[in-house]
Structure formats: C-alpha cells, structure tokens
Amino acid sequence: MGSWSGHGTAAVAVALVSWLCFAAAGVGAIGANWGTQASHPLPPDTVVQMLKDNGFQKVKLFDAEDGTMNALKKSGLEVMVGIPNDLLLTMATSMKAAEKWVDKNVSNFLNDGVNIRYVAVGNEPFLETYNGSFLQTTFPAIRNIQSALIKAGLGNQVKVTCPLNADVYQSSTIKPSDGDFRTDIYDLMLTIVKFLSDNGGVFTVNIYPFISLYSDPNFPVDYAFFEGASSPIVDGSVTYTNMFDANHDTLVWALKKNGFGNLPIIVGEIGWPTDGDMNANAQLAQRFNQGFMTHIASGRGTPMRPGPVDAYLFSLIDEDEKSIQPGNFERHWGIFTYDGLPKYQLNMGTANSRGLVRAKNVKYLEKKWCVLKPTISLSDSRISDSVSYACSLADCTSLGYKTSCGLLDIRGNVSYTFNSYYQKNDQDDVACGFSNLATTTGQDPSTGTCRFGIMIEVDSAFSWRLQRFRSDCLLMLLLLLLQLCLSFS
User: Fold this and answer.
1) Which residues are registered as beta bridge partners of 181?
2) What confidence category does residue 29 fall into, taking pLDDT thresholds of 50, 70 and 90?
3) Among residues 65, 78, 99, 124, which one is catalytic?
4) Is 78 a catalytic site residue?
5) Catalytic residue of the set 269, 319, 366, 457
6) Which residues contact 18 (CB under 8 A, 6 or more apart)?
7) How far is Cα 186 from Cα 172, in angstroms, rounded to an integer?
8) Is 124 a catalytic residue?
9) Taking Cα atoms as reference points, which of 308, 301, 193 lies closest to residue 244?
10) Which of 153, 290, 393, 405 is 20 to 30 Å from the Cα of 280, by its Cα?
11) Which residues pair with 59 in a beta bridge?
C-alpha cells in the first residue's frame, strides 16, 4: 500500500513525454473528486496541499462545507461545488433559499479567493434506484440556482450543471449511434439539456466501466480497459475498443439526435476501486486510471467528440462511511488511503511527475492494535456476536473473497474486525473489550496485502469540524445559563 519509489531516468522520461502530450494537445487539467464521508477525514488544508502536490488543478465537491471551502481560498484550484440531493426540494420550491445558498456558498467564497467555476445541482438524481424521488425537484432547483447566480452578477463566471449517471441514456443496440435518452425521463432530459445549452452550462456525466463488470459476469474484462479489446464494437466506420469511448459517444449521439450536438461534456466521475470485490484491487485500479490518463493525454478525445477531455478522477481519498448498499467496493475508490498514502503508481502527466505524493504531516495515534487474545478458542460462542457488532459499527469491507484481506485465517479475520472498531473509536480502551475476548498489541498484525490500520489523531482529522462542534456546545451552554439567570431575576 506504499507509494511508488521508482524515480529513475526511465520514470522521468515517461513523465516528460506524458506532460508534452498534455501540453501539445491542449488537454484540460485533470481534476479529482473530494468526498468527506469518512469517520476521520484528513484536515482540509492537508488535502488541498495534497491536490497541489500531485498536479491536480481542479476539484469537485459534493457540498459546500465551510472547512473545505476555507481551505481552498487562494489555492489556485478550480472548484465545482455541489448541492446535495437532500437540498433539491428546498432549492426547487424557494427562490429565496436558492439566493441565500448562492450568496453564502458562491459569492462569499468567490470574494475570499475560491475559484468557483461550476455549481453541481444534485448528484445522480435520476438513478433508477432512487425510484423517482428527485424527478420533480431537480430541474426547478437547477433553474432557481441559475437565476440566483444571474441575480448575484455571476451568470457568466459560474455555470450550473447536474452530474448524472450514465444510466440516463442508453442504446437500443450495443452501438453508440443508437443512443438516446432513457424513455421514462426523455422529456425531462430534453428540458434540462436545453436549459444548460441556453445558459452556457455543461453536461456532466459519471462513467464507470467497473460497475458494468461488477454487475455483469459476462462483461468482457479487456473492454473495460484501454489496451484494446478482443471483441471490439463496430459502429459504421468507427471501431470501439474500450467502454469509455463507447459510453461517452452514446451520450454524444443522444445529444446530437436531439439538436444539442455541441453541448460541452464533463466526465464528472471516472475511476476504479481497490478493494471490496474480486475485480477491485490496486493492480486493476492502476491499470484503469493510468490507461485513462494516457488515453486522454493523446488529445484525440473520442471518435464522436475529438479534442480535450475534461474529467475528474473518482476519487481522491477512501471514505469509510459511504453506504455499501451498491457493494463493499464503495469505500475504496480513492487513489489514496484514508490517511493519504498512495495506493499505487500513477503518472499525473505533469512535467515533474514521479508518481503520487503522500499527504504531509499526518498525525497518527499510538502504534497499537486490537486483536483476538491468543488464548481464546475459536469455538467460543461469544466471537460471532462480537464480530457482528464490530462490523456493524466499523468497516469490514476489506474482508471477503479475493479482497485485500481475503487470505486471513479465521483468527486473523476476527482480529481485523476488532481492530477496525478499536481504531474507529480512537483506540479507546473500552473499544478493545469484546467480552474480554480481545487485547491490545504493539506488534503490527498486517500481512501481505492486508493492512491493519492505525487511526489518524482526532485533532488531525477535520479539527475545524470539532472546533465548530465545541463552539456550538459552548454557545448552547451560554444561552442556557442566560435563560437561568433571567428566570431568577
């Protein structure tokens, strides 16, 4: 799980050639998705520095948390700030709320030096798994946020978009040229696309070859990557050898058929997870992400949309509190671990790129782990309930068939679950009890690809959030004391 350390002449030459390709092609800078659904997120200032150290020039956010936005001030990074789906109803039904959101989260931070370029209204709101929950509110929210931007004098500077999953369009065959928008949301999609076109917006789409492989055991593995496919798709005079190009061009055809063939497209999310599934590992993630970077570095674009590809890798850092309803892999999309360690080599295409650079000045708790006591018999009836309890409150997604910890024996599995719970609870002694089944050790139980983590120090993990929480508590206490004083006066 360590970073690549091969800094030889060959590596430098590859980096230089890659950078020259980017420069010659005029390719837009690569971006990263920065999610914060983690129990112990890295401090925002640390993440911003990590983005810059690794050559990222833009970042996509899923909300507008103060700590994140403050850290981006004067960073030079281009920002796409997000409005979560649970705010769509408010934004759709109240123009005043939309204006207030823009004032607080766009105008305010722009004035303070945050380079906000886009507002992402919602996140994949038309996913079929949402059962239509956001069909009525997404477009009115987009419209109101656009109006609020215009009212704030930002209509030309900041553009609206709506990151959509690739399931909003489909092909009646396997050919991209037969692509069109999904029939159940066809009219709604045309309304949104026309609005984006009229207002200088962009179409943002999330494309995931991994999900296709995960959900279809017959999906051709080589078609997910960029080295060529044994069974390419022939579409007229065009041959597609990878899923990204074909999927992207299915969207281009859908736009073209409906009169919007020139609408700019941003790839809002693209990536590959490193754990939680038999096809999720560092080797395949490196193969996919490096393949994608090299593919877009050529500047050729796709057959239907030649030229630079604007894209954000998904994602920057692992998030241990993401929902695993889609699959255990959901917590492992990061190119960096929870504590900012690169998982594999990735050439970012910058002139000085020698692989990924780890996060700086990360503070850890003590070097100790919680494990099953050696004296405890595996037949002890208390073990099963203890493991279930630990996994329900911590993260056990690295355990299972062909995962990073898939080769652990039973005792190792139990120890992993205990340690996960112990670390998530900041190495609290009580969190290594488990009915007296567990004990702490100073000897690292990590083996091979299976890493038994040590948690980041609490004050190092989003200290701004803790400070805000403490400030709120102090304010509530003062108000309570004031009430008591008034009641006695």
Assistant:
1) 169
2) confident
3) 124
4) no
5) 269
6) 293, 294, 297, 347, 349, 353
7) 14
8) yes
9) 301
10) 393
11) 32, 79
